[in-house]
Fold:
Amino acid sequence: MVNSIEVKDLTLTFGSVSVLKNMNLHVQEGEFIVLLGPSGCGKSTLLNCLAGLLDISDGQIFIKGKNVTWSEPSERGIGMVFQSYALYPQMTVRGNLSFGLKNAKVPQPEIDKRIARAAEILQIQPLLDRKPAALSGGQRQRVAIGRALVRDVDVFLFDEPLSNLDAKLRSELRVEIKRLHNQLGNTMVYVTHDQIEALTLADRIAVMKGGVIQQLAEPLEIYNRPSNLFVAGFIGSPSMNFLKGRTLDNGRAFQFGSTRIDLAGYEGGAVLERDDAILGVRPEHITVSTTPLAGPSLAAEVEIDENLGADSLLWLKAEGTTMSVRVPVEGRLPPGTKVHLGLDIPKASIFDAKSEQRI
Amino acid sequence: MSVTDRENTAGALVREPVARRPSRLFRNMSGKIASIPMVFTTLVIFVGCTLWTVLYSFTGSGMLPRLNFVGLDQYERLWGSARWMNAIENLAIFGVLSLVFTIVIGFFLATLLDRKVRGEDAFRTIFLYPFALSFIVTGLVWQWILNPDFGVQQVLRDLGWESFAFNPLHDAEIVLYGLLIAGLWQGTGLIMCIMLAGLRGIDEDIWKAARVDGIATWKTYVVIIIPMMKPVFVTALVLIASGIIKVYDLVIAQTSGGPGLASDMPAIYVMQQLFGAQNLGQGFAASTMMLVSVVIILIPWAYLEFGGKKRG
Amino acid sequence: MADLSVTAGAMTGPRGQKPKRALSPTNIMLYGTLIVIAVYYLIPLYVMVVTSLKGMPEIRMGNIFSPPMEITFQPWVKAWSEACTGINCDGLSRGFMNSVYITVPSVIISIAIASVNGYALANWKFKGSEAFFTILILGAFIPFQVMIYPIAILLGSVGLFGSLTGLVLVHTIFGMPILTLLFRNYFSSMPEELFKAARVDGAGFWSIYFRIMLPMSMPIFVVAVILQVTGIWNDFLFGVIYSSNELYPMTVQLNNIVNSVQGVKEYNVNMAATLLTGLVPLIIYFISGKLFVRGIAAGAVKG
Structure:
C-alpha cells in the first residue's frame, strides 16, 4: 500500500539556522497524525513544507506516491485550514467555497454539487449567502474546513485551527473534527500545541522539539512509554514527577536520597547501574497512605492541596523534591500531614540523566 | 462660606462650614489651560477666519475689506470670468490625472517592494526623498530638466530623434503634463509608503489560502487584496485630493502659471486677486469656492468614518 | 524498515531545494522595473548636482545629462554669497539665516504647545475636548487661501504683520492639527496604569508630564521635529505673505533668484541655489531614514 504522505530526509535551513533537521515521516492513508510541540519546535514549519508554501533545503516529499517536492500547493492534492480561518472577507461563504474551483475551471454543476455536499457535512447550509464578518468564530472555522473539503483532495492539513476559539467552542469543534475524520476517512495532518487535542484526535502523535521528531507513536504509547525526558514532561497535566537519583544492584533498585525504591516490575530495557538516573512517575500512578506501605514507597509531607472539583491534587515534598499526586476528593489531606507514597513501578519510566532517553 | 446646623457626635447642635463644591468649570483646570491653544486655533483661526472670508465674499470689497453687501455679485463675476473657468479646467485635468496616476503608481511600487526584494530600504529611500523637498525646489528642477534647449527635448534630438518635440514650458497644450511629471515625482513616494503599510497589514494566511486554492498572484491582488485595502485607498484619495486643490508652490516655481495662463490654477487666481489686483471680493469668493470643493470631497469621507457605522 | 522496495523506486525525481534561478523571468521584471523607476527618481538629483558643477560655456555646449568636463564650485559660491534677487545681491546666505531664524523657534514652540495639548487630550479629557479636536483635524483640510487675509488683518492689528514673531505664530498654528494628533495618539497608546499609578502617588498635570510622559516619548518627539523642520523649512506660501523683504526664507529667495531675473540665466547658479535650499531637509531625511517614514505615515494616516 502506498503511503499517503512520505517525507524523506527533509531539511530546512534559514541562513545558518537549521529549522528542520533530516526529518523522516510516513503517514498511512486515512491516518490522523498530529504534530505536537511547544512554540518554535518546527511543527507549523513542517506543515507549510508539506503544503508547498515553504521551499525546503534538502530532502523529498511524496504525496500519494507522487513526488511533489517542487510542486505548487494547488498541485499537491491538499486542502488546508488555517488558524485565522483566512476567509476572503468580501465574498460570501458560497463565494469562498467556489473561488478556487472556478479558478481551476471546474464546471458549475460540479461546483454546486461539491458545495452542497460540504455544506451538508459541516451543517453550514443556512450560512451560504452570508459574509465572513457575519459569522461566529465556530462558523468561520467550519467554512474554512469546507473550503478544503470542496477541493476533493486526499490530504487535509490543519494549522492550529482551534487556537483562536474559546475553550467551550474548542471542545465542540474538536469533536466535530473527529466526527469528520470518521465520516470522510481522509488523511489528516494536524498541528497543535494543545496535548488534549493531540491525545483525543490522533491515530499517531509526532512530538517535536527543535526541528526534530522526538517520538512518533500512538497516544497511549506516548503517554505510558515516553521515549525521552522531554516527551515525558510535555505530555500529561500536571506533568510527570521526576526523581533524581541513581540505580543500584544491577538495576533492581533506585536510590532516591535516603530512600531505596524497589524496581521490580519495571517495563522497559536493561536498567543496569547508572550514577545519574531519573525515575519518572505520573501523579495519577501514585497512591497516598497515612500508614506505611508494603511495595515501593516514599515518605513525604503534604504542602498544599488543590481541590479541582472532580478530584484533588496534592503537592508534597519528598527528599527535598516537590511532587504532585492526584487523589479522589475524599482523599484530601491537610498541609503538614506526613504520608507514604506508593509508586506504581510498572507504569513508571526510568531515564538516563545524561542522554535523557528512556531505558 | 455657607453654614449648616447639625448635631455633632455628642448630640449638641453646632454650626459647621460647608465647603462649596468646585463648579464644573474649574475641574481639570490644568487640562483646560493646556488645551487653550487648540481651542483658540479652532475657534478663532479655523472657524473664525473661514467664516470671515465667506462673509466678506458677499461684499463689494476692493482694495480694502468693506462691509457693503452685494449678494452673489462676486460669485457671478467669478463664474463669468474666463480666467477663473480656465483655472478650474486646468485644476480638473491636472487633479484627476494626478489622483489616478499617484494611486496607481504608488500602489504598483508598493506591491513591488512588498515582494521582499533585496535592497528594499534603499529603494524606499530613493522613492521617498523627493517628498523631503520643497515644492519650489521640485518645480525649479523640473523646469530645468524640461528646458527646450538643454533638457529632455534637446537630449533626445541629439541622440538622433530630430523631430522630437516636448516643450511643456512653452506649449500651452502640454504644460499640464510637465507639471504632472514633477508632481508625481514628488508625491508618489508618500502614497507608496501608505500602501505598503496597508499591504503589510494583510493577514499572511490569506495569501497562503489563495496559493493553496491555486489563484495566480495578479488575480489575488485584484480580487482579494485590493478590496481588503479599501480604507487605505480612501485615505490616499482624500490626502491627494485635498492637497491638489491647494496646489500653488509647484506651479509658481515651474511655470509661473504659464505659458500665458495655460497652467493657471485657482490658488494662483486667489493670490493674485488678494495681493495683486487689489480685488479682495473676488479673492474671497474664489477662495470660498476652493473651500466648497474640499468640503464636497470631505463630506462622504467623514460620513464613512464617523457617521454610519459607529465603530468603537 | 518496511516498504523499502516501494519507496526505493521513487528515490529519483525532484529532490531538495527547488531550483531558484536568480535570473528567473519574474525576478528580471521585478528588479528591472524597480531600477528603471529608481532612475526616474534619481535623475533630477543627478542633474542638479551635475549642472551646478559646470561652467556656463560648458552648459551652453552640452546637455543636462552630460557630466562636467571641468568641475567648478564657482556657481555654489555665487549662489551662496552673490546671487541677486530683485532687491539685493547677497546671495542665498541671507535666506538661509532667515530660514534658520524662522524654523528653530517655530519648531520648538509648535512642538511644545502641541505635545502638552496632545497630552491633555489623551489623559485629561474634558467635556467638549474631543469635539474641539475633531474641528482641529478637519481644519487641517481647509485651503490656506481661505484664511490668509483675515489672519493678515489679525497680525496687523497686533503689530506683528511682517515680523518674525508673526510668522512663527502662523507656523505654530498651522502645525497644530498634525502635531496634536501625533502626540495625542502616542500618549493614548502609553499604558494607562502608569498614569494612574502616578496620580495615586499624588502627582498632578505638569509633574506627570515632565517626569513621566516626556522621558518616555523621545521617539515621537524626534518624529515631530523631523516633520516640522521639513515642513517649515520647505514652506513658501507663508514665507511670501507674512514676512518682509529682509525676512524672506530660503524658498522665497530661491524662487526670486531663478524666476524673476531678467537677462542672462545662469543655470548653474540656479541649480546650485536649488540644491542648497533642498540640502537641509534632504540631510535630515537621509540621516533619519525610517523615523522619517514613520513620521509621515503617522501624520498622514488620520483616524
Q: What stands out?
A: Confidence is low (pLDDT under 50) at residues 1-10 of chain C. Chain C is about 70% helix and 0% strand. The interface with chain A takes residues 3, 6-7, 10-11, 13-20 of chain C (CB under 8 Å).
